[in-house]
Amino acid sequence: MTLVRRTAVALGAAGLALGAPTAPALADAKVRDIRVQGPTYVYKDPRYARVKNWVQVSYGRRSTTVRFLATGLPRKAVGKTLGVHVHKNKCGRKPSAAGPHYQRAGARRGTPLRNKEIWLDIKVRRDRTARSVAKVPWRVGKGQAGSVVIHAKATDQKTGDAGDRLACTTVPF
């Protein structure tokens, strides 16, 4: 099976179909779709060097949906929950290059982090795959976010912390 076909099969199995948009999506002139494969960089733990991930971003008139699929996660991660977040900057050689978590522009002071960031925490399955989907009721503006980062721990619901950055995929939001 060719690499393109294997990728299409993997994406299809994960619900990240590569087909044409449905009719309602075509009716919304503001709909935009972004698909990338990564990671762009792997940090600290060499066991994550074999990870492959796919990110799909879809925009509606007043929403953003981010789909995430990862394969080849390390055996030590099976059964664990890892934080996955949208970050402000594109990936770089250092984990800090991705900057802080993206936060919705214009969010009111005191808004819980969960309601102004995009969190895609994943639970790693026995087959060493994981996937998640997050839909938020706002549009991420062009250039306001730049990457999706896999973290070492589940996201702390109060602080948003998820530990070390393990892998980063640049996504042209």
Outline:
The protein is mostly beta strands and 173 residues long.
Q: How would you characterize this protein structure?
A:
The chain is mostly beta strands and 173 residues long. The strands form three sheets. The protein has a four-stranded antiparallel beta sheet with strand order 1-3-4-8, with no helix packed on it. Strands 2-10-9-6 form a four-stranded antiparallel beta sheet, with no helix packed on it. A two-stranded antiparallel ribbon has the order 5-7. Strand 3 and strand 4 form a beta hairpin. The two termini are 31 Å apart. The N terminus is likely disordered.
Helix-strand pattern: HHEEEEEEEEEE
Q: What is the mean pLDDT?
A: 86
| Overall shape | globular
Q: How much of the residues is beta strand, in percent?
A: 25-35%
Kindly, what is the distance between the CA atoms of the first and last residues, rounded to a whole number of angstroms?
31 Å
Helix percentage: under 10%
Q: Largest sheet at a glance?
A: 4 strands, antiparallel
H/I helix tally: 2
Strand order, sheet with most strands: 1-3-4-8
Assembly state (oligomeric): single chain
* Rg from Cα: 16 Å
Low-confidence stretches: 1-29
- Helix/strand-derived category reads mainly beta
Number of strands: 10
